[in-house]
Each structure stands twice: as structure tokens, then as C-alpha cells.
Specification:
Rossmann fold; 9 strands; five-stranded parallel beta sheet; globular; four-stranded mixed beta sheet; alpha/beta; about 300 residues; about 45% helix; single chain; about 10% strand
Amino acid sequence: MNVLPPRVRNRFAALKLACSYLGAARGEMVLHDRPGGLFSLYCQVLGGLLVSDQLGCSLRLHFVTGDYRTPDCSGTGWWTQFFESDVYNPERKRGGNSVELPATRKSARLAHLGVDMDRHLAFHLSRRLLIRSEILEETDGFERQCFRGHPMLGIHYRGTDKLLIEAVRIPYDHVSGMLSRLDPRIRFFVATDEQAFLDALIRDFGQRIVFREQHRSRDGTPVHHFDADENETGFTRGRDAIIDALLLSRCAAIVRTPSNLSLASTFLNPSIPALVLKPETGSRSRINHGIRKIEQAVISAR
């Protein structure tokens, strides 16, 4: 049985992984992007930060391919469309070696390290990934207009390819039935990639549903896959994902399906109560107990 505290396990795993990259000591790690959603790559960067800290080297992101590349960022990398920098701790380079980490199984281990990270450690690292001010301003404006004065519960339902490949689908009526038992004063901020799920909640809860207008899948096609000829779609969808994650983190609590986006919301706000809906969550009584704790957290935060 693993008895190490989560933060110790995370740092031990990072140290073991760092042994593979010892050539970067007194230099820099150069992390390449890979196919995947924005927050899968976000978790990969968190893992990269932790390993580079163990090595005492800088981290540079070479993110120039994939679903978030747009014509405006050709040659410069797309990460800085969303974040202030793609170089972290540059003072550590000190003229040393550069070790390239291309999109291989080894670099994917950094994403697993990020996903499995203790919330408070992830929060500490996430504070170094400074989101661009214009994205924060748009988030602040929506929060002021739609959140203030209401007890707000965040709902994140990740559908499309996630439910075909990585997780089991939770029926819409299961989620709706659970929410219907909550205090009627509670409003729901809904973040989802499936338009049908949003439509179902609007039908059941009407004006209690709060959401942002954005592109959502109507046919099961993942929203982070798109026609490369579409104008700035990569930026638009990446921005929408970041704003959704920020807004979820500003709710009083979250009910979510397995997803790196809403996982990142708990990294941005490590004290937020969260209930993950999946078949292994437990018995009906345990789920009911969990949702009641969520209800208490939302009402008390008003």
C-alpha cells in the first residue's frame, strides 16, 4: 500500500522522471506539444514545471502544431495566445545544454504527472502559468454579470470523444434528477461540449441555467478538432475552454464528469468542493451524501 502523502508522491515521481533528463541540468528542457485537448497539454506543462524544478533547469515550450495553432502564431508558438509566456525560469539556463522532449511516450508521462498531481501542489505551479489579461477581463465581466448575488454550482459535462474512449457516459437524466433535489435557490453554471446536454438542462431548469454562448458539438465531433482552414478557430475554442475552467473555479462547488478541464478548475481553486460523476463513484446513498455536501457548500458560500 502506498502510504506517502500525495505531495511527496508527486515530487518523488517527478524526481524519478527527472533522472531521464539529467542532460538538461544547468540548461533547459524544451517541451513539444502533442495531439490533445488544451487542458491535457496544460497538465503536461505542470508536469514539465515540476520536473524542471527538480533538475534546476529552465522550461521552454515549443508548441507549434496541433489543434490550437492559427495563422497569426505561425513561427512563434500558440501557447502565448493564452498565456503570458512560454518560457519558465529562464535565469536557470546559464548557457547549459538544451534537451528536446518531442511528442513521445516519455513526454506524455509529464501529462500523467500533472493529472495525478496533488491539488495544492498543482495550484502552486499553476500560479506561474499567467493567463493573458484580456482572457481574465472577459472572465471577470461574465462573473460580475451572471454570478453575483446567486449561489452558484458549476456543472461540467465532458462528452463527445471522452465518453467513447476514456470514460463511461453518464445519462443526462441522471444528472438532471440529481440536481432537481437541490435547493431551488441554487443556479447552475453549465460548461459542456455537448449542445444536447445544455438543451436538456435548460428544458428542466429554465432560468436557473447560466452558460456562455460558444461552439458546442451537435453530432458527437470533439470541439477541439476542426477544419484547419477555419479562421482563428483554434484561438476561439482554446479561449472558451480557459474561460469555462476559470468560471467553474469561481463557483461555490463543482459537479463534474472526468475531464482535464474541470480538473484544472480544482487546481485553480484547490479548496473548492467537487463531486466527480462516474460509475465507480459509489452507491446511490454515497452519491446522495456527496451532493448534499455540495449543496451545503453552495448555500453557505452565498
